Amino acid sequence: MNGRVYICDDEAGMLRYLKKMLVAWGVEVVTFDRPLALLEGLRTNRPGADLLLLDIKMAELDGLETLRRVRGRHPDLPVVMMTGHGSIESAVEAMRMGAQNYLTKPFPQEQLRAVVGQCLQRGRLLEENRSLKQKLRRNDGEQVIFKSAAFAEVYDLAMRVTGVDSPLLVLGESGSGKEMIARAVHQHSPRSGAPFLAINCATLTETLLESQLFGHRKGAFTGALQHQPGLLAAAEGGTLFLDEVGELSPALQAKLLRVLQAGEYLPVGSTSPQQADVRFVAATNKNLEREVEAGRFREDLYYRLNVITLELPPLRQRPEDIKPLVEHFLVKMARRMGQAPRQVGDELLTVLQGYSWPGNVRELENVIERCVVLARDPVLTPDLLPGKLRRPESVSFAAVLPSFSLRDAERLQVRRALEETGWNKSRAAQLLGVTRKTLDKKIRDFELSPEPSS
Fold first, then answer.
1. What are the residues facing 395 on neighbouring strands?
2. Domains of the chain and CATH, by start
3. What kind and span of H or E run contains 5?
4. φ, ψ for residue 147 (rounded to 5)?
């Protein structure tokens, strides 16, 4: 047996006992007598641990809370909980939160050796599998295109959590690629052979969204003429992507919490619980902590979803990604149109890299498609861009007006899109890379209105 094991327990005698046993079996051991010292050790120590043995009952910080923090920062680290006879329920809860196993004190040496050995072996297999997947490039599915260190860090974390079933929360502005990263996680996970299904929680009424998610029984409501399975049933064994999860009503938040806690749900009009076997990936462009504080989002649901968090940087913070993204879009469009790919000129690229991109990657793709459709020459030039991008003031405000807030910049871009399209909201929404509903909300938030004609 070999590997590096971290142990956290505030009982000095237990630490000494465990270290003596594991070292005798050839394992390298690092001990911590406080949870906060453990968290700091995980942050700073290189190389990291292959396994963590974590006590549930500790004075400084509860073991479950420590586990939650460990899982949030190190989602691929196997954790074995150590518990007394009186706290089995806590151990079961820890398993639901992602712990791999638990040991009930006092445990015999044979059990300790078996559990530690199994966890270290499984960890080696997962690491080998992860390395193989990184070497093999998938030819199917949507590619994740990036060059920047900022996005590489997020993508690396995403690939590290493909082998676990814990919920994943993806944060980012509209159009920044939240569904794309969710699909990538699914495609590289053990669930890749089962469906990936997505639903936008902001575009449906509460009744329709409930029916779509959970399904309904015949006669559950007017028009329910037959049994209809929901997305939870259709995504069996796969991944369910909940976009704009912050828009869920309080009633649906409670129903989703039950699925996450108990793994079961009730179809509309049914009294028989159904089992759910899906991995949840939720996404939002809202600050959910602020929504919790305001009472609009359940705190318990937030903590259930927030086991592992990916925060996607907006496109304006990673201009080095614009060139590879543009080249990818040009190849993609050329295949679709059955023609040779266009080339992006240096002058056009300079303009694109200086723009603030409030609609992020989705807006960039729409702009490139416009350029390709209008182009007569093989090389794309700035004159093909929409007017708002050709104006000198469309470059990044961060470089010229440090006091100009992000909200001000976004308000200006929304207003420009509306003016560019003569206040045609559908076309303006497409130009910005957002939904019509999102645009309507922005117009209300920014108190925008058409200028009176003179």
1. 355
2. 4-133 (3.40.50.2300), 149-313 (3.40.50.300), 316-446 (1.10.8.60)
3. strand 4-8
4. -135, -25
Q: According to the model, what pLDDT value does residue 140 have? A: 42
Q: What's phi and psi for 236, nearest 5 deg?
A: -45, 125
Backbone φ and ψ of 378, nearest 5°: -65, -25
Please name which of 365, 374, 373 lies closest in space to residue 432, comparing C-alpha atoms: 365
Q: Which residues pair with 4 in a beta bridge?
A: 28
Q: Between the CA of residue 54 and those of 49, 101, 388, 451, what are the distances in Å?
A: 13, 11, 56, 63
Q: Mean pLDDT over residues 353-357, rounded?
A: 91
Element at 346 (helix H, strand E): helix 346-354
Query: How many angstroms separate the Cα of 372 from the Cα of each of 175, 329, 365?
Result: 20, 10, 11
Can you tell me which residue has the tokens 């350029």?
371
Shortest CA distance to 37 belongs to which of 74, 81, 72, 6?
A: 6
pTM of the model: 0.58
CB atoms within 10 A of CB 374: 11
Token output for 89 = 């329920």
Q: Which residue has the higher pLDDT, 406 or 9?
A: 9
Q: Distance between CA atoms of 132 and 162, rounded to whole angstroms?
A: 13
Instruction: Quote the pLDDT of residue 122.
Output: 75
Residue 448: partners with Cβ closer than 8 Å, 6 or more residues away: 411, 414, 415, 418, 442
Planar angle of CA 359, 435, 192, nearest 5 degrees: 85
221: phi > 0 → left, psi -120 to 50 → alpha, else beta; which? Answer: beta
Of 251, 236, 250, 257, nearest to 305 (Cα)? 257
- Residue 221 pLDDT level (bands cut at 50, 70, 90): low
Is 302 in contact with 292 (CB distance < 8 Å)? yes
Contacts by 56-59 with C-beta closer than 8 Å and gap 24+? 56/81, 56/82, 56/83, 56/84, 56/87, 56/90, 56/91, 56/94, 57/83, 57/84, 57/87, 58/8, 58/9, 58/10, 58/34, 59/10
Q: How many residues does the chain have?
A: 454
DSSP 237-296: TSEEEEETGGG--HHHHHHHHHHHHHSEE--BT--S-EE---EEEEEESS-HHHHHHTTS
Dihedral angle over CA of 151, 153, 154, 157, nearest 10: 150
Q: Would strands 28-32 and 51-55 be described as parallel, antiparallel, or unpaired?
A: unpaired
Task: Give the C-alpha separation, 437 to 202, whole Å.
Answer: 8
